[in-house]
């Protein structure tokens, strides 16, 4: 049996940092990443045979838990029929129909293989459809690693952003304006100054890449108004929130609070693939018709609409539509956050948490942060200690304070109780 430490050492020899996606390396919290050998229900098992209650769920897709029988059966059947054809299939239509049925803001959808690809393509489409170059992004939101989106705020609003990655020339982000999340004043100023050149504003409606931060209703209402007024498209990145915060996704929640509310374009990933590489972007027919092969905006993919991935996504979407699914998931997730908050209160640990559907976040702070710099000023040292104390007790939380958490339908009452008990122990130490 290889230990996690031995595997990590071996991995680092052949893979940069030993991982194929940076956050897996535990850089933010320190320590040795766990090498996972298998997963079942709410649990992950590592190379040393240890079991963990999984609150990452592959960073969102595993809403049914690992190895759900209906998903396994659909995938196994699809595998025997063929892994990839590079030609259209009926299953792609079925998945598109299923997604469109649940997301009334979209009349057409294009399937791709990753959230990065979907967000990047949605921006190209927004630029092509409007004939404009600029876009707004909000600090702390992540939309994948396309060049134009790897950008942080410059020194002032009038200046454009700076690349957050080497290898992205400043010219490539010169059209990206980075604004503070939930900051109405900056939003007004940005549209006043640049409105006529803006192709789109892209936003995570509930940001899951700076832990868990909701866009306030006044902020979202004004963002929608300004986009409409200035002819810019409002693009919802629902890669994380899609079919996770509710069956109608985050846009469904905003539509309840702000009647008539719809984004122009939407980006999905994670849950719609059920754990296989699959993502999508969509919107009104007239905009989507501007995509190749019918329109002038080019976009393509060898494995797009892959027959195994679509089978996995379809089976997942069918399960989450069963009566009561989101009621139970929402109640369980809320009770986890409430349990942690109660334990923190008893231990006199400053703690705030929030959740929606099966997505949650918590901070070692006295108030819920409203934007990125507030998130980053919460107690990181305490988070890191807590993360390791929980991991030691078999609870696998996201290994960075700026990541959201996920509960699946496979998490039992006993799993949630064990998690809260572990937190009490962590805070008693
Ligand atoms: N958008 C959001 C909101 C995300 O959370 C992520 C990934 N965590 C992405 C886009 C990029 O998706 P992918 O990792 O599949 O490229």
UniProtKB/TrEMBL annotation:
InterPro entries in the record: 4pyrrol_synth_GluAld_NH2Trfase (IPR004639), Aminotrans_3 (IPR005814), PyrdxlP-dep_Trfase (IPR015424), PyrdxlP-dep_Trfase_major (IPR015421), PyrdxlP-dep_Trfase_small (IPR015422)
A Pfam entry, by short name: Aminotran_3
Location relative to the cell: Cytoplasm
An annotated Gene Ontology molecular function: transaminase activity
SUPFAM superfamilies in UniProt: PLP-dependent transferases (SSF53383)
First-listed, main subcellular location of the protein, grouped into a coarse class: cytoplasm
Keyword Magnesium: no
PANTHER family xref list: GLUTAMATE-1-SEMIALDEHYDE 2,1-AMINOMUTASE (PTHR43713), GLUTAMATE-1-SEMIALDEHYDE 2,1-AMINOMUTASE 1, CHLOROPLASTIC-RELATED (PTHR43713:SF3)
Protein name: Glutamate-1-semialdehyde 2,1-aminomutase
Organism: Caldimonas brevitalea
């Amino acid at each position: 049996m290889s230990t996690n430490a031995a595997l990590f050492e071996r991995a680092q020899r052949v893979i940069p940092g030993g991982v194929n996606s940076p956050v897996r390396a535990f850089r933010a919290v320190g320590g040795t990443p766990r090498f996972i050998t298998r997963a079942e229900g709410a649990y992950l098992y590592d190379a040393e045979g240890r079991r963990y209650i999984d609150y990452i769920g592959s960073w969102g897709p595993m809403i049914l838990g690992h190895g759900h029988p209906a998903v396994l059966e659909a995938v196994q059947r699809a595998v025997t029929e063929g892994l990839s054809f590079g030609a259209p299939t009926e299953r792609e239509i079925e998945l598109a129909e299923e997604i469109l049925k649940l997301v009334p803001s979209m009349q057409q959808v294009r399937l791709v293989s990753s959230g990065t690809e979907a967000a990047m393509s949605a921006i190209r489409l927004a630029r092509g459809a409007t004939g404009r170059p600029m876009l707004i992004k909000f600090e702390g939101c992540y939309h994948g690693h396309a060049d134009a989106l790897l950008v942080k705020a410059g020194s002032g609003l009038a200046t454009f952003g700076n690349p957050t990655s080497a290898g992205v020339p400043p010219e490539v982000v010169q059209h990206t304006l980075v604004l503070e999340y939930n900051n109405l004043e900056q939003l007004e100023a940005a549209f006043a100054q640049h409105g006529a050149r803006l192709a789109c504003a892209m936003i995570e409606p509930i940001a899951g890449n700076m832990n868990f931060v909701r866009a306030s209703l006044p902020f979202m209402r004004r963002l929608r108004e300004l986009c409409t007024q200035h002819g810019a498209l409002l693009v919802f990145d629902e890669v994380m929130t899609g079919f996770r915060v509710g069956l109608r996704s985050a846009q469904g929640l905003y539509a309840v609070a702000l009647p008539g509310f719809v984004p122009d374009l939407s980006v999905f990933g994670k849950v719609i693939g059920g754990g296989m590489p699959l993502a999508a972007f969509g919107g009104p027919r007239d905009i989507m018709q501007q995509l190749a092969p019918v329109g002038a905006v080019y976009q393509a993919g060898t494995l797009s609409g892959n027959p195994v991935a679509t089978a996995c996504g379809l089976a997942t979407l069918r399960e989450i539509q069963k009566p009561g699914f989101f009621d139970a998931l929402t109640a369980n997730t809320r009770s986890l956050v409430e349990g942690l908050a109660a334990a923190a209160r008893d231990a006199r640990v400053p703690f705030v948490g929030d959740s929606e559907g099966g997505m949650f976040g918590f901070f070692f702070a006295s108030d819920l942060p409203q934007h990125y710099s507030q998130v980053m000023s919460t107690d990181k040292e305490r988070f890191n200690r807590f993360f390791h104390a929980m991991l030691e007790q078999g609870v696998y939380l996201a290994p960075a304070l700026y990541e959201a958490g996920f509960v699946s339908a496979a998490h039992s009452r006993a799993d949630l109780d064990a998690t809260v008990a572990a937190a009490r122990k962590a805070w008693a130490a």
